[in-house]
Amino acid sequence: MRLLSFAIPLLLATACAPKQVSVTNPTTPPTTGQVSGPATPAPTSANTVDPVLARVPESDTTARPQWLKQRIAAVLAERKRNPITRILRYDYGGHTVYYISAPCCDQYSNVFDTKGKLICQPDGGITGKGDGKCPDFEKNKTNEKLVWQDPR
């Protein structure tokens, strides 16, 4: 019993003794000026990623029909949408058409002719495949031009 009462405090003392641990982080320079291997890059505290401004494509403002100008004004009168509204012009089925992106989620995007008549809704909805009236739109649209995108 005496041996047991002596051994337990000794075990606890050694198990709980503070250990000397050295901790570094990736931005801590090596103490020797060398790194641990030829493939290991030297640590740095400098920012390694330079911020790049998003490139906003220039809008094609030529010959916007009046109905389209009114739609743009209506979008600007609302609060900003997420994702932002984009209007693109395409050639589709031998005609010029305007594609207006969906305001959100499962809503339909719209394709209009040059007079402002709704032709179809090629994407969106619960299935993501639109209203089914122009299932070949994605494959057969050509000559994409950005007409407008919400600048806010």
From TrEMBL:
Keywords: Signal. Pfam families: DUF6970. InterPro entries: DUF6970. Residues 1-19 form the signal peptide. Residues 21-50 are annotated as: Disordered. This is DUF6970 domain-containing protein. The keyword Zinc-finger does not apply. The keyword NAD does not apply. Residues 33-48 have a biased composition (Polar residues). Residues 75-150 form the DUF6970 domain.
